[in-house]
Amino acid sequence: MHPATADATGTSVREVLGACPHDCPDTCSFITTVKDGRAMRVQGNPAHAHTAGALCAKVSRYVDRTYHPDRLTRPLRRTGPKGSGQFEPVGWDEALDDIAQRLSAIARRDPQAIVPYSYAGTMGLVQAEGMAARFFHKLGASLLDRTICAAAGTEGVTQTLGGKVGMRVEYFAESELILIWGSNSIASNLHFWRYAQQAKRNGARLVCIDPRRSETAEKCHEHIALRPGTDAALALALMHELDVNGWLDDDYIANHTLGWDGLRERARRWPVERAAGVCGVPDGQIRALARAWGTTKRAAIRLNYGMQRVRGGGNAVRAIACLPALTGAWRHRAGGLLLSSSGQFPVNGAALQRRDLLGGRSPRTINMSTIGNALLEKGSPAFGPKIEALVVYNSNPVAVAPESGKVVQGFSRDDLFTVVLEHFQTDTADYADYVLPATTQLEHWDVHLSYGHTDALLNRPAIAPVGDSRSNHDIFRALATRMGFDEPCFDDTDEAMCRQAYGDAVDFDVLLRQGFATLPLPEAPFAHGNFPTPSGKCEFHSERLARAGMDPLPDHLPNHELAGTSPHYPLAMISPPARNFLNSTFVNVKSLRDIEREPLLEIHGDDAAARGIADGSVVRVFNDRGEYHCKAHVTDRARPGVVHGLGIWWRKFGLDGTNVNQLTSQKLTDLGRGPVFYDCLVEVAPVVDAPVMDAPAAKVTA
Known about the structure:
about 20% strand
């Protein structure tokens, strides 16, 4: 925080250091300029090397979001049917007293009938799962398996490298070859893209591997447009070529890997011709990529989570994560792989979340990716008690969870008590019994890690809470008091918990002074092995998987819904994010929504012509789970046979009151129990004279 100064009119002006809270690997450090207690602008912190003074277009508008006219600023109680958005204002005491009373009554029967539902609406360690985790652990509520984004990839990289570890992102600037695999970095990892561009200017070759011809693919030297869900087949073919052409680092393999003999045998089953047929790419493109990878010393992979949202996503990440060890790329600080850096942060989760408050209880676990099914389950010995209450924070499941028709059906239950902590009247908030107004990042303390770089960050409150909003921390602490939870940890302040998050492992005074602190990590973490696996080696063969009765070696697993297997639904659909949204966040910011204009389906010209679909026409995208209306964009961003339902629009802004998740399934990945958003078959047909619906606003009676 910089000292307050006065402008020419004598008005007090100060700058406050903060951190972007959103689900993005960049985790930028920012500066909020405050004038007479009101935030005037948010800008990137030039002193933070990774941010370098620049923010994305979304977060640059954070002041607009904070003071948005539709911002929730007082508690609301439902007055109309669920989903109607009809509410009345109510005081905090009345709301919290009633919520505590109703949760207590359910808990007396069985606390597992209460389910928390949250994800990465904020990535802060305190406002995400700090006091909230303490509250639900003490209550004995069901645990939540937070799988909806990264579970398969996390499990895959953990089984291979030992955790969410990898290269330091800044050294991509020195790489000679960069594979951008399953990532539209320009849209979702902008500050990595800056390092990639620096490498490109120095002569590096950039290759994008992605079914979609994204903005990033257009800027790379080469685009490999493989079919969705075939990434492991491509990786195994690369291994085959590395082996038969002698492009292996035999010394690194012998000393720092485990299980090459078995993996080599498997790779030999994947000659280029077989992989090319599965992936739908030319033989020569695979051979050229293998040669480039095998003959370039400083070769690096920036892997992202899009490619693991299919049945075989975990195995695909395992296969790709093996490639740097085969060629010894880890010997160089500009070689290796990065999926996530978050496992390198010394977070004191035990102090923050206090699992000891469970007191020896072992509540059931609900998978957030199958919340649609879970809400419709009756109580049984296998499932446990029927879900009677849901507390939603940092998430918008009605919009983002798969097979949203069932999610809506579950949230519509009259016997389900639902509390939602939110900034805006989201699709999920429309189904709440109570909506509690939460603070934004400009209004509370928090501390952050990053999954795209290795700096810890601190967020200070720049302004007082807007209206009667309260931080997640304060809301759960107030509920704990009303429910008689008297452990001293429920008295901890937001700032105290920020200090507990890293303990002595990160100097809090440095965080206070400059807003960030760089972790003291080696430049080339696995140059001499020392992987955080049980063996200390890169584990091609995972004994942990073998003990669990699973295949210990990576393999290609075809999609649940494999293209060519259904006569009714011949098109594979993926649902990458629209460039100006972040999951379902920012959809209600009109300036950003105006850029996106309307929900789109990207479709190749051949597929459009075969169906009589014109560019800009309204289409229905459908399968056995439901249908979704949107505008068709006929474009070569899509390869033949694959369509892209850009998301995630709020349902209320959809042309027919739905979004793309009306079509996705609740099937799960091979590892990690994650969702399979990009493993989805559909058909597309034109809609004649389709009406365009106006988005309904929340109805609040004064």
